[in-house]
Design a protein that fits this description.
The chain is of the alpha/beta class and 298 residues long. Helix content is 31%, strand content 31%. The protein binds adenosine-5'-triphosphate (ATP).
Length: 298
Amino acid sequence: MRVAIETRQLTKAYGPDLVAVDRLDLQIEAGSVYGLIGRNGAGKTTTLRLLMGLIHADSGTAQILGQDLWKAPPELRQKISYVSQGHMAPDWMTLEDLCRYNAHFFDRWDQEYARSLARRWDLPSNRALGKLSGGTQRLVALATAIAARPEILILDEPASGLDPVARRALRVCLTEILSHGDGATLLLSTHLLPDLERLASHVGIMDQGRLVAEGSVEDWQRTLRRVQIVFDGTHPPANFVIPGAIRTRTTGPVVTALIRIENESQLDPVRQISGSRVLIFTLSLEEIFVEFFDCSIS
Ligand code: ATP
């Protein structure tokens, strides 16, 4: 595997009792889409800032394309686009100004692509950015990050503030970039898990500064099932257990369980539980995330 982004034992504290990123080991393969998810305050933004060399780590390393951005030469920075949660460009600038500025700064700047994104996303070229709506400003930041044709694209909550149509347009565009096959690597943090599910090859779950679970969405969806067993009576039979359950919850005659499987035939004993109606569901990434924090399925 060719690693594009890597952290080793990366640590950043904002005070004696606030370790925002805690000995984080992360390896992201070149050409992949990696989604960093976690509850509010889990340390996602801090991780991205450390990777971008915007803040200094207390210990450990953070590297993009084999180099620490805190010390990296400008040539390396050209290969990386980063969209943070806040504003990036001065309010008085227009999209056209910003494109002109970026054309000087990024070797691979693609003016034609910037124009086409502006058309597709309905972005005004000559209005001051400060006068645009929050969502439109966000799209401007994303369009200019993408038109730089980066090798590495790092997006912190890219879809926050975007309406559903704009979110879809962004997703289509990111899929296009990735399908060009030029090896671009995308790392994004997001709370919009249905969007991520359609895009990410890998997902890492952060909690209290640590990576607590990591995997491919496909693997998680292949190996996890929610099973609901509805018994005829008012309660399940005494001492009833569901084979293979990671967690079980009982409400009246209904038993709900989370099961990890390697193949579908492992569910046969569940399907055959007598005196009951059995329903088996696959889980969305959002459901997996919620289950994770409910019961630690790592
Ligand atoms: P969210 O999903 O809400 O954006 P996050 O996972 O991105 O959260 P971070 O923004 O990285 O989390 O914050 C991690 C922790 O570090 C939080 O407890 C936050 O309050 C704290 N923190 C972040 N930046 C600073 C700062 N500049 N000074 C002090 N504490 C900070």
